[in-house]
Design brief:
This protein is 38% helix and 22% strand. It is of the alpha/beta class. It has two domains: 2-97 and 182-257, 3-Layer(aba) Sandwich (Rossmann fold); 100-178, Alpha-Beta Plaits, CATH 3.30.70.1020. The chain is globular. The structure holds magnesium ion.
């Protein structure tokens, strides 16, 4: 896996011709915060994104609820993909995957049970995002994490076994999603078809988490896939950037590319 900034010159000509930037939010354009509501988009990053609008197509793709990511980014003329791909919104696009709506009562049922069992545990942050849910344990004391996980699995396991939901573990967070053949990868391909039906633009996907791996696989042969990671790690992405600052450096270079 190669460092993107050292390889960028190779793609300069193609990128200049046009690209779609697909950016994850937490851990990619904003450092991961202690609590999800604290991960605000800094003004300079918003400015940077704004400078990219008009030069490239821009997609923010997140596990957060669509309303949350839109509220945090607050930019018009770009595409937003929320809830791991189940909600998509942008110029002339506004969809909620209907299959996922069917699982909503189950997600809320699970959230209720989790609230009962681990809701009072110090440091657990439960996010019912409608179509999916996140259970953060970043703030749980280290010696309590094992106990927390045990209870978590005892609650969700029946729903996993019956095929209703699937669970992925990210950075100190469990993601609970409908067990459907849809993820950030499928959503990324879908939005690429909407934005660029003739397949003339290069997709550039940047993300840091386990759920971004689906997108790295989906776009691997077609675009530039970039994992945000302090060191090269096992990933489907072809390139890496070390942290949010390097992502911003990359985005600045992109903005200058079409000046
Ligand atoms: Mg992320």
């Amino acid at each position: 896996m190669k460092h993107l900034l050292s390889q960028l010159h190779k793609f300069q000509k193609n990128l200049r011709a046009g690209a779609v930037l697909l950016l994850d939010y937490d851990g990619t354009i904003v450092p991961i915060a202690r609590r999800p509501e604290l991960a605000l988009l800094p003004d300079d990053t918003r400015k940077l994104l704004k400078a990219l609008i008009g030069k490239f197509k821009l997609v923010i793709i997140s596990g957060r609820a669509l309303s949350s990511v839109k509220h945090l980014v607050r930019l018009r003329g770009i595409y937003y993909v929320g809830n791991h791909g189940f909600e998509i919104n942008g110029p002339n696009v506004n969809i909620i995957k209907s299959e996922a709506k069917c699982t909503r009562p189950i997600i809320s049922d699970i959230c209720e049970k989790l609230r009962e069992k681990v809701g009072k545990m110090k440091g657990v942050v439960l996010e019912d995002k409608g179509l999916t849910a996140s259970v953060h344990y970043r703030l749980v004391e280290r010696n309590k994490v094992g106990g927390f996980k045990k209870i978590f699995w005892s609650v969700v396991n029946p729903y996993v076994v019956s095929g209703k939901v699937r669970i992925t573990e990210g950075k100190k967070v469990f993601e609970i999603r409908p067990n459907l053949n849809w993820d950030k990868g499928k959503a990324a391909l879908w939005i690429m078809d909407v934005i660029d039906p003739k397949k003339k633009l290069i997709p550039v996907y940047v993300g840091d988490d386990q759920t971004d791996e689906d997108a790295f696989s989906a776009l691997r042969d077609r675009g530039i896939t970039v994992v945000v990671s302090a060191r090269p790690r096992r990933s489907q992405a072809k390139f890496f950037l070390r942290d949010v600052d390097e992502v911003k450096a990359f985005l600045s270079k992109m903005a200058q590319m079409r000046d």
